[in-house]
Amino acid sequence: GYVMETLKLQRASLDFGVRVERTSADYTGFKVLSDAKGHYVSTTPVSGSNSYTDALPSLNLRYEIDPRTNFRLAYGRGLSRPNFADLPPFLVENDRRGTLSAGNPNLKPTHANSYDLLLERYLTTVGYVSLGAFYKELRDPIYRAQTGVAAGPFAGFTQSQPINGQKASISGVEASWQQHLSFLPGALKDLGVLANYSYTRSRAKVPGRKDDPALLRTTPK
User: Fold this and answer.
1) Which of 31, 75, 108, 124 pairs with 12 at a CA distance of 20 to 30 A?
2) Helix, strand or coil for residue 182?
3) Which of 26, 22, 164, 159 has its CA nearest to residue 88?
């Protein structure tokens, strides 16, 4: 469910509200064992469950500097749920390689507090230019960790399992230009341009590491 409101004050307009979501899930995974030669031995079902409630507020402020220029400020809290395939409490054992692949039904969703600033200018022809900056603060980011098993029946094995980290952040700038080039002569006046550029920087607190590496699947440009 959600509630929202819009306020308009001369040159400024403000949209704000909150969305509440409830997530509840039950999982059944399987423990699959193989022998030292890699041959199948047995499959045993394993169950798990998880549930949580999230309140996700948001705020968007637009200020009209002039009829064709706007300044925007936005805040929003969001979440990204774990991949469904990572949640069932499965366990796949490979004696030949000495490895375990495990699910994690206790994975928490990743929450993000997002802050955005944007300056945009609409052109007299069809188009606009914009320049913005953003910062996202992440809690409980998800990583796939590989750890050595020290005790128990799988001592000496290497286990791969998705886990929650502590925190991470992403910041950057972005620019965009879109315009109909109607000022060009002849048939060229039907051309247009659409271009954008972004630069991002990310840092993460990863369990078991002393440095602050970049987040997976992020690049500077």
Assistant:
1) 124
2) coil
3) 26
Tell me the C-alpha distance between 216 and 145, whole Å. Answer: 13
What is the C-alpha to C-alpha distance for residues 44 and 23, in angstroms, rounded to an integer? 27
Q: How far apart are CA 212 and CA 45, in angstroms?
A: 38
Q: Which residues pair with 221 in a beta bridge?
A: none
Distance separating alpha carbons of residues 144 and 160, to the nearest angstrom? 7
Distance CA 155, CA 93 (A): 12
The residue behind tokens 């750890």 is 147
**Measured CA angle at 212 (ends 208, 215), to 5 deg:** 100
Give phi and psi for 31, each to the nearest 5: -95, 110
What residue has token string 């507090």? Answer: 113
In the block, tokens 């798990």 appear at 48
How far apart, in whole angstroms, are the C-alpha atoms of residue 112 and residue 167? 10
Mean pLDDT per 10-residue section of the chain, whose length is 221 residues: 94 96 87 77 84 95 95 96 87 83 90 97 90 96 86 85 91 94 86 93 81 76 54
Residues 69-100, buried b or exposed e (16+ Cβ, 10 A)? ebeeebebbebebbeeebbbbbbbbbbeeebb
